[in-house]
Design a protein that fits this description.
Layout (H helix, E strand, L loop, with lengths): L3 E6 L5 H13 L3 E6 L4 H7 L5 E4 L6 H6 L5 E4 L9 H6 L3 E4 L5 H16 L15 E5 L3 H12 L3 E5 L5 H6 L3 E2 L3 H7 L2 E4 L13 H4 L7 E4 L8 H10 L4 E4 L5 H11 L3 E3 L9 H21 L9
Parallel strand pairs: 1-2, 1-3, 3-4, 4-5, 6-7, 6-9, 7-8, 9-10, 10-11, 11-12
The protein binds 3-phosphoglyceric acid (3PG).
Length: about 300
């Protein structure tokens, strides 16, 4: 009996990327089921029932989904952050979880710089704005995305610093990045800080007033990571106390916070309407094909790469 792979993307890949993913899986002899833009979590629960593997994006792979998937052996998150997958429950059920780190990093990096230019130029309203050249950018967590943002920022002539307790200073310095010893040191010296950490018990609500108000005059916080890492109550306080600070995000805050940010700080706040950092054809192809190949490698050759719930 052939294996069945479910491609479940509530936020679909571009059709070109999706077709390439399907082709890789079909060429390997697998049956492929598509569940795109579905309306309800119950659709995912129903669709997964006879799948041996699944590819997801930010889709919620809950205990309920995993319990409904009696044949499931592998979940591949086509992307970096796997906070949407109940990894512990998957492990209990003997289901491996993999991600595809780095595959969408350039797409996110380009959006980060685009949002910075948009804000620096007064949201393209025509009034005199500011340039990025010569400003200092702080990278808060220096992984694949932080590194990609650095490369693009350097093209704009920015100076780049970074703080990451898990990355050696020498690694950052090899990229021409000044390593900072603490988050406080980073925020204190940077005109812009761009956040690139996952949402974990340690990072959730870890960025608040204490860090933000250390930023120099006109400071801008850029979030393309996760909404959860921001202490949103303290963000509102920081923006109120410091009328020069700005907040740009690709992850929409909770509706009540979003309404307050827009009403009180409209010109110093920008959010994309829907998370779109990784939403390019190229990133979809890179992440989707990597996910499909990891599935084939696992079933055909027992290769376990990018496992996040070992
Ligand atoms: C990631 O963790 O890879 C990014 O946040 C992209 O998420 P998405 O696949 O939901 O766009």
């Amino acid at each position: 009996m052939s294996k069945k792979v479910l491609l479940a993307t509530v936020k679909p890949f571009s059709p070109t990327a999706r077709d390439q993913v399907v082709a890789v899986l079909k060429d390997a002899g697998y049956e492929v089921a598509l569940l795109e833009s579905y309306g309800d979590q119950s659709d995912l629960v129903a669709a997964v029932s006879d799948a041996h593997a699944m590819i997801v994006r930010s889709d919620k792979v809950t205990a309920e989904v995993l319990d409904a998937a009696k044949q499931l052996r592998l979940v591949v998150r086509a992307g970096s952050g796997y906070d949407n997958v109940n990894c512990a429950h998957a492990k209990e059920r003997g289901v491996l979880v993999m991600n595809t780190p780095g595959q969408n990093a350039n797409a996110v990096a380009e959006l980060v710089l685009a949002m910075m230019v948009y804000m620096a130029r007064g949201k393209f309203g025509g009034k005199p704005g500011r340039e990025l050249r010569g400003k200092t950018l702080g990278i808060h967590a220096y992984g694949f995305v932080g590194k990609a943002v650095t490369a693009v920022a350097k093209g704009f002539g920015m100076d780049v610093c970074a703080f990451d307790p898990f990355v050696e200073a020498a690694t950052m310095e090899a990229d021409g990045v000044e390593a900072k010893a603490t988050a406080e040191d980073l925020y204190r010296c940077c005109d812009y800080v761009s956040i690139h950490m996952p949402a974990t018990p340690k990072t959730i609500r870890s960025i608040g007033k204490n860090l933000l108000t250390l930023m120099p005059e006109g400071g801008t916080l850029v979030n393309s990571a996760r909404a959860e890492v921001i202490n949103e109550t303290e963000l509102l306080e920081a923006l109120a106390t410091r009328p020069d600070l700005h907040y740009i995000t690709d992850i929409q805050p909770a509706p009540e916070i979003q309404a307050e940010l827009t009403a009180r700080f409209g010109d110093r706040y920008f959010s994309t309407p829907k998370k779109m950092g990784a939403q390019t054809l190229e990133a979809n192809v890179n992440a989707g094909l990597t996910a499909a190949r990891q599935i084939v490698g696992f079933f055909e050759d027992g290769v376990e790469v990018n496992v996040v719930n070992a």
